[in-house]
Design a protein that fits this description.
heterodimer; A: mainly beta; 7-stranded mixed beta sheet; B: 5-stranded mixed beta sheet; globular
């Protein structure tokens, strides 16, 4: 089955630690995205990538880093510089990074900083 | 920062009721509007992508209309069923520096059998 997988489902981190969230897709999509959801807020874009080896900052990129070495994979690292990292993180992909293409979402990772 | 408003915030209806909710957004530099359905413990799923003023899209019992001049979209569900219970998200797309989807907070629909 084609789709997007995210791992782990739940992640706990101690303050000061970096942590990497995995996102893999087998839809052959060019574009991939990372969103963050906080209670009472809409999804906010962290980073997106329209093509391998290229990515752009979204609205809330501070304290996060990404890489796009393979078309299928777009891992997100939450660094210790992110002041409030506890949140629900969603990864998505689309055929191209174009506005008319629907996005396909993964199941999400809930990160809790202890 | 662009403001996307969805109303109502939540809605409780009985099975068989028809319902509708609204997405309001700035109309300047508008390119497209996405609607997504997000069921609890599942991934958000695309419903519609709409671009033209007056556009109307339909998927089964769900339909949506778009007014780009005044900046709003309506989502209608005819004869709601318990499986329609979900949060419905709208997300307009703007060109230029806002080159990504701007998501509203969603309307949470609960349908009682």
């Amino acid at each position: 089955d084609g789709g997007i997988t995210q791992s782990p489902k739940y992640l706990f981190r101690k303050e000061g630690q970096n942590v990497t969230l995995s996102c893999e897709q087998n839809l052959n999509h060019d574009a991939m995205y990372w969103y963050r959801q906080d209670p009472g807020q809409g999804l906010r874009l962290i980073y997106y990538s329209q093509i391998v080896n290229d990515f752009q900052k979204g609205d809330i990129a501070e304290g996060y880093s990404v890489s796009r070495e393979k078309k299928e994979s777009f891992p997100l690292t939450v660094t210790s510089a992110q002041k409030n990292p506890t949140a629900f993180y969603l990864c998505a992909s689309s055929r191209e990074g174009a506005w008319y293409n629907e996005q396909f979402f993964g199941p999400g990772t809930r990160l809790t900083v202890l | 920062i662009l403001n996307v408003e969805q109303s109502p915030q939540s809605l409780h209806v009985q099975e068989g009721d028809s319902t509708n909710f609204t997405c309001s957004f700035p109309s300047s530099n508008f390119y497209a509007l996405h609607w997504y359905r997000w069921e609890t413990a599942k991934s958000p799923e695309a419903l519609f992508v709409m671009t033209l003023n007056g556009d109307e899209k339909k998927k089964g019992r769900i339909s949506a209309t778009l007014n780009t001049k005044e900046g709003y979209s309506y989502l209608y569900i005819k004869g709601s069923q318990p499986e329609d219970s979900a949060t419905y998200l709208c997300a307009p797309y703007y060109g230029g520096s806002q080159g990504n989807l701007i998501f509203g907070k969603g309307t949470k629909l609960s349908v009682k059998p």
